[in-house]
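2024-03-11 09:14:02 DEBUG pipeline.ingest accepted 1 chain
2024-03-11 09:14:02 DEBUG pipeline.ingest length=135
2024-03-11 09:14:03 DEBUG pipeline.predict start
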Amino acid sequence: ETKAFQNWKAKIKNKYRIETGNITYYKGKPTKKFSQYLESLYKSKDNKKKKLTIKLDKKTISSKEDEKEVSEQNIFKALTGKNAIWNGSETQNFKNWKPRIHKKYKKETGKNPYYKGNATKNFKHYLKKIISHND
């Protein structure tokens, strides 16, 4: 048990004793009334689960962006046999290919291929289908 938990436990015991005048433990076990008191405290408090906040490094954020680009690059290379990036920048063919695929996807499905800068799952599946039909 941590110090913080021990302090909290002592405060709750004292508070219960002052409010009710009853004992909290009998023969090393909590009494029924004390257990009910603890349950009422638990129910009265807002018990919303907190979302875990994960602090991302700049490296991990950039790697996620790279994964998006890499997947499109791999698909472009599989379809055309040409590299998507040359000398650290996108080739003109790749720049022209991306909007054509986006327009084609949007025309067929009526949905946007990206949401908040990330490719949607349906768009990724669509790209995989294109590769499988091409082979």
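2024-03-11 09:14:41 DEBUG pipeline.report The mean pLDDT is 78.
2024-03-11 09:14:41 DEBUG pipeline.predict end
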